[in-house]
Design goal:
The chain has 11 helices and 7 strands. It is an alpha+beta fold. It folds into 2 domains: about 150 residues, no CATH class; about 140 residues. α2 runs parallel beside α4. The protein is elongated, with a radius of gyration of 24 Å.
């Protein structure tokens, strides 16, 4: 087998393997549909192929072949659009919706993973081609796969805020979590259900960066969705009053969460909140600016 073909095959295999490993389904179970999994694996194979042929094509002075990389970028943008539209179409069937910020974050993630696949394929193929040894290419590609998986990981709520349990209380029809007003509950039977089954938590940001992340409405919607998915939710399509809510104290930046879960364990609730990902659209760093540092003093 000649050097070009060996390098290309190694790049395709390593890139496709990287996409398979990145496609692991976590507690959110997305993508959970078999056809969606096939779509992503097929696109990963295409991305790996394009990355694998880049270095041999340049070495052979076939510069027109590299223009396919530009075409790939256009196609991968369509991946983002495909995921966005699909998730938006499913929103109406969710008892607690993800929200547009969470959906956009998922769509961007799946687009970016194809570029990571190309990086793995280019690296493995290029090193194999230059060195003339597929073993050296393999030894280089494996660490790059782990680096790519590492790049997938972002911050979670537990990294930016202290999450602790809290108690809810009623003042007439109004329900509070500590000093934070959540909502007004008019029906006595609904208040009784909250009194018996509701659980509450307070999120205290570590710094001003965390404060502004928790101020993002999309971030709070993501917390409500993930928590309801993990612990279950005591509501149906016609009982909107049992939708989990997060409200913010505008003076301190603390956020209170109130939920009526099917699984009432408080430690599980805190763990679920801590592991909600910080959305890209919510990430801000006021402390990185001079004005932000001055204001925080």
């Amino acid at each position: 087998m000649n050097r070009d073909l060996t390098a290309i095959l190694l790049g395709v295999v390593m890139g496709t393997l990287a996409r398979f490993l990145m496609l692991r389904r976590d507690v959110r179970q997305y993508p959970s549909y078999p056809h969606s999994v096939v779509n992503h694996l097929a696109l990963g194979f295409v991305a790996a192929t394009l990355g694998a042929v880049a270095v041999p094509a340049i070495a052979a002075r076939e510069f027109t072949a590299v223009t396919f990389l530009a075409l790939a970028a256009t196609q991968f943008r369509e991946v983002r659009n495909m995921e966005r539209e699909m998730l938006k179409s499913l929103e109406h069937s969710q008892l607690v919706s993800r929200g547009p910020d969470f959906i956009e974050g998922i769509a961007r993630t799946f687009e970016a993973r194809n570029y990571l696949v190309m990086l793995v394929a280019v690296t493995a193929s290029g090193i194999s081609f230059v060195s003339g040894s597929w073993l050296i290419g393999l030894a280089t590609g494996v660490p790059v796969i782990f680096i790519a998986r590492r790049l997938m990981k972002g911050r979670v709520i537990g990294d930016i805020a202290r999450v602790r349990s809290a108690r809810h209380r009623f003042e007439g029809p109004n329900i509070f979590v500590e000093d934070i007003h959540i909502m007004n509950l008019g029906l006595p039977e609904i208040r009784e259900t909250y009194h018996r089954l509701a659980r509450a938590a307070v999120l205290e940001p570590f710094d001003d960066n965390g404060r502004e992340i928790l101020a993002n409405v999309g971030q709070r919607q993501a917390i409500a969705h993930d928590t309801a998915t993990l612990l279950g939710i005591h509501r149906d399509v016609d009982t909107a009053e049992f939708t989990p809510l997060l409200r913010r104290n505008p003076e301190s930046g603390r956020v209170a969460m109130l939920i009526v879960p099917i699984e009432p364990d408080e430690e599980c609730l805190l763990e679920a909140i801590r592991n909600v990902p910080v959305l890209e659209s919510a990430r801000v760093k006021p402390l990185a600016a001079k004005a932000g540092k001055c204001a925080s003093d």
